[in-house]
Write a structure and sequence with these properties.
Elements (H helix, E strand, L loop, with lengths): L8 H17 L8 E2 L4 E5 L2 E5 L12 H14 L14 H14 L2 E5 L2 H13 L10 E5 L4 H4 L2 H4 L5 E4 L4 H10 L3 E6 L10 H11 L2 E5 L26 E6 L9 E5 L2 H10 L1 H4 L6 H14 L2 H20 L11 E7 L1 H13 L2 E2 L1 E3 L9 E6 L6 H17 L13
């Protein structure tokens, strides 16, 4: 029997290369810029634009407390990184950060250089049964699980059966739980292309069937919860032994790195001893660690709630000006559907010419013929900037073929 394939990179390259070539030719890919105030960036001397592409949803990546903390740590330690495995030597600030985040998020926290390496640490251990008392679970991926999750399917399939279900299809997931004694579900908390996981329904399945839930809440961290625990953790009081949450420190948290939130001491021991990125690679760099400690202090202050409220107003403004399928969910990612890949690229290029940088999402990031503008909203965007962006998108849509502008398919 032929082994199931989980990747077909050659086919993806063949199908997407023309659109990538076109996007690069229009000047909307791999831009290099210098940060200015708020969400303004300088592409070249004398030319700045307002970007809606970065995921610093609370605007903390420019925060003076975070930047100053990183500079002070570099001056104090006179080092950037220690070139050794984490099972040997670590910066003492790494311990301080893990203690601080564990208290902040009410979980056992292990920090990583990226959320990708955090997932790379945990998922193989989940597949081999290390987190499920030696019983290998059937692994079920949401169809829209992020690429940094789906990337590991082939490795996980060496140990366990790997399945994929429709996006947020709780009925299909429950059917699998009825058939198998041990099931693990892998999904995002807040999806990078919009939408979110049905946490309460997942917890119901966990209570009824013992479902193991693995959530990558990279885009949900900081924007929800009194201490910025994130979309997922703010709804889960006790992780216990059947839930692990991965999260990024590089988006709402405003620095760099990733974390795993754990519920048990045994899970932490397994990760620190057997996870390849932890045992054989380095952790976050010193500036990132110090910046994260400063961000944690901001998360403990009244400023967090103020920034969350500002973000909410920005999202509400966008929804009023440009309704989409995600309107009203409170999340900071909005997808404005267009359809054809080149039309999405043309729209993004015209917006850039008008002073707005917005990412064009096309295959393989989204399904073919489902290209869209991906708008990342932040607390640092003014309502006026959001209004101007929406008006520009609407203007490009209305100009139609007569003036050569791409035509948008407005979402409901």
């Amino acid at each position: 029997m032929d082994k199931q394939r989980f990747r077909d990179l050659a086919s993806v390259i063949e199908k997407s290369r023309p659109d990538f070539d076109y996007a690069y030719s229009k000047g909307i890919m791999t831009l290099y810029a210098r940060s200015l105030e708020r969400r303004h960036v300088e592409l070249e001397p004398g030319r700045s634009v307002i970007e809606f592409a970065r995921g610093s949803y609370l605007g903390l990546d420019n925060h003076p407390m975070i930047v100053d903390a990183a500079i002070a740590a570099l001056a104090s330690y006179r080092s950037i990184q220690w070139s050794g495995a984490r099972t040997r030597l670590n910066f003492s600030l790494t311990r301080d950060l893990e203690y601080s985040l564990s208290e902040l998020f009410d979980a056992r926290v292990v920090v990583y250089s990226l959320v990708l390496t955090a997932n790379m640490s945990a998922l193989p251990l989940l597949a081999c049964g290390a987190f499920t008392r030696g019983r290998k679970p059937v692994l079920v991926f949401d169809r829209f699980a992020h690429a940094t999750l789906a990337y590991h399917k082939a490795v996980m399939a060496e140990d366990a059966e790997v399945l994929q279900i429709g996006h947020n299809d709780i009925e299909e997931l429950e059917g699998i739980c009825r058939k198998h004694t041990r099931v693990a579900y892998i999904c995002d908390g807040v999806y990078s292309m919009g939408g979110n996981a049905p946490i309460r329904e997942l917890l119901r399945l966990q209570e009824r069937y013992g479902l193991f839930i693995y959530i990558d809440d990279a885009h949900g961290i900081s924007i929800r919860g009194r201490n910025g625990q994130g979309y997922a953790k703010s709804q889960i009081t006790d992780l216990g032994e059947n839930t692990i949450i991965a999260a990024s420190l590089s988006k709402g948290f405003g620095v760099t790195g990733g974390v795993l939130m754990l519920g048990t001491e045994e899970q932490e021991k397994l990760l620190r001893r057997y996870a390849v990125p932890h045992a054989f690679s380095m952790g976050p760099d010193l500036a990132g660690i110090a910046g994260a400690l400063a961000s944690a202090e901001i998360h403990r202050s009244a400023e967090l709630g103020e920034r969350q409220a500002r973000l909410s107003r920005v999202v509400q403004c966008f929804d009023e000006k440009m309704p989409t399928q995600s309107s009203g969910d409170g999340m900071p990612i909005r997808m404005v559907p267009i359809g054809a890949s080149r039309a999405a690229v043309d729209t993004a290029a015209e917006l850039l010419r008008r002073g707005f940088y917005v990412a064009a999402a096309f295959y393989p990031t989204v399904p073919r013929d489902k290209a869209a503008l991906r708008v990342c909203l932040t607390a640092d965007h003014s309502l006026e900037e959001v209004t101007q962006l929406c008006e520009s998108i609407g203007d490009i849509a209305s100009c139609g073929a007569s003036t050569g502008c791409p035509r948008l398919e407005r979402g409901d």
